[in-house]
Design goal:
Keywords: Activator, RNA-binding, Transcription, Transcription regulation
Shape: globular
Pfam families: HutP
Oligomer: single chain
Structural class: alpha+beta
Number of domains: 1
CATH architecture: 3-Layer(aba) Sandwich
Strand order of the largest sheet: 3-4-5-6
Helix content: 40-55%
Strand content: 25-35%
Organism: Desulfosporosinus acididurans
Subunit structure: Homohexamer.
Number of helices: 5
Radius of gyration: 15 Å
Number of strands: 6
Function: Antiterminator that binds to cis-acting regulatory sequences on the mRNA in the presence of histidine, thereby suppressing transcription termination and activating the hut operon for histidine utilization.
């Protein structure tokens, strides 16, 4: 199966990796591209998927728990994980691992626009965060983070 996006074709193998799938979801640019990829992953490999977006500064995203709360809500609302303590714990750790790469070497006043892809099978969960950060519009650049945890 292949998906077309950004002028290239993305092939979905019989069992794509959760990590790559989460990164691809986080990097989709349109809702249509996102929906095609989610459908292909669910149909071809029984991978449950979720996506959320959020923005703000480091202090509003990380220190208030807005990032973690958004990821947990997305996971529940999309059926990525059920409301079970062990699975929530794994999701939180995967989110923290992914956010370490996003928030490293940045000012607490930097602004972020982030898209988060979640993928899971029955044993593992992956959280990928892709987005842009900037202290000033001329300094904007991309960041990506990935977390992977056993359920």
């Amino acid at each position: 199966m292949s998906l077309k996006g950004r002028g290239c074709s993305v092939k979905v193998k019989a069992k794509p990796s959760l990590e790559r799938s989460a990164i691809l979801l986080a990097m989709t640019e349109t809702r249509e591209e996102e929906e095609r990829l989610k459908k292909a992953l669910q149909e071809s490999a029984a991978i449950r998927c979720g996506v959320t977006e959020l923005g703000g500064t480091v202090s509003t995203l990380q220190h208030t728990g807005k990032l973690t709360n958004s990821v947990i809500s997305a996971a529940f609302n999309t059926g990525v994980i059920p409301k079970e303590g062990r699975k929530i714990h794994a999701l939180i750790h995967a989110t923290l691992e992914a956010s370490n790469s996003i928030f490293i070497h940045t000012n607490s006043n930097a602004s972020f626009a982030l898209k988060i892809g979640l993928t899971t099978d029955t044993e593992w969960i992956a959280v990928a965060i892709f987005g842009r950060s900037s202290l000033h519009p001329l300094l904007e650049h991309s960041r990506v983070g990935l977390g992977f945890m056993h359920l």
